[in-house]
Amino acid sequence: MIVTRELTKRFGRTLAVDAVSMDVHEGDRYGLLGPNGSGKTTLVRMLLGLVFATSGEIEVMGSPIPRRIGQVLPEVGALVEGPGAYGHLSGRANLTLLDAAGPGRAAGPGNASRRKRGARRARVDQALERVGLAGVDDRPVKTYSLGMRQRLGLAAALLSEPRLLVLDEPTNGLDPQGIREIRDLLDELNAAGTTVFLCSHLLTEVEQLCTRVGVMDRGRLVLEQEMTDVRALTGRVEVRSPDADRVVALLDGRVEHRDGEHLVVRTTDASELNTRLVEAGLRISEIRAQRRTLEDVVLEITGPGSDRVDGTPADGTPADGTPADGKPADDRSIERFDGFRVEELGSDSKGSRDSGDET
Ligand SMILES: Nc1ncnc2c1ncn2[C@@H]1O[C@H](COP(=O)(O)OP(=O)(O)OP(=O)(O)O)[C@@H](O)[C@H]1O
């Protein structure tokens, strides 16, 4: 669905993307994970033909990019660098304009035109409904919270019923409820056949949503794996027992770690261990085969010095003092891949929370 070969992008002396060879399969929910500044957005912008690569190749749905970008874009829904919109218009009006600007969508005179307008209204209604904005479509977008703008951006990406969704930090600005709703929506779209490719600096977001993961670190793709392989068994079983002392005695040297009632036992067979403990008359309140977490794997690869994934301070401000979105304060213009140039959203929209009052 997306293939890159040795894809590289330099901005002057900055090597933003460094020889990335990536492979996103049809039907994937692919999460590209990496700390701020690791090159995710630059890579996505190259995939969408917004930025030219310095070297390397890109194929999206079998077509070379940017050469065949015009052929590919109608089948791609994208949300990159924050959603853009005309602030003085409602969400519905914005979507209607966007839909009208889509390929083959211009309405002419007569019955055919009325049919097209009817179909457009239905598409816009459905997109608003899907992202949970159906009840607020008369308010101007400038009154929307960042979370609502994010949903509107997603609704725009869904208008064309895309085969591929490309989303840069899709849950940016959403509260936990909003994040869950977007996750459910992406799950649902993926189940219906849409390939989802998203960038995130949040481990948990990728771990919960994605079937395949790529990890970027300083411009390089340092891992690409199926999530089931990432979450491989460790050859340990975790046991919780009120009889922990007796478990330790019975297992004689196979308990690697103990913390109160919680024990980590070296074995690959949880059911055999369970049978043995129960037959010995020991009480077991919990037993499960231990799996690696995405965090274990990322830390293993990027090393203890690279703790920036999910590691920004609690106030969201990176240690180097740049704003929470990682962009210089004067670099916050909003663009859309389809050239639908829109009003800039002020920096005050960044970091605001989804008020949750849109329903
Ligand atoms: N237009 C540009 N001009 C110069 N340098 C740039 C430009 N765009 C990105 N960079 C630099 O390229 C590197 C990668 O940035 P990029 O935005 O792709 O990373 P990211 O992983 O998407 O980070 P974030 O999560 O903050 O968006 C950074 O060092 C950034 O400063």
TrEMBL record:
**A Gene Ontology molecular-function term?**
ATP binding
Q: Which domain of life is it from?
A: Bacteria
Keywords from UniProt, A to Z, are: ATP-binding, Nucleotide-binding, Transport
Q: Where is the composition biased (Basic and acidic residues)?
A: 327-344, 350-359
Q: Name one Pfam family in it.
A: ABC_tran
SMART domains (alphabetical)? AAA
Q: Which InterPro entries match?
A: AAA+_ATPase, ABC_transporter-like_ATP-bd, ABC_transporter-like_CS, P-loop_NTPase
**Span list, region Disordered:** 302-359
| Domain ABC transporter, first and last residues per copy | 2-243
Q: Which family does it belong to?
A: Belongs to the ABC transporter superfamily.
Q: What is this protein called?
A: ABC transporter ATP-binding protein
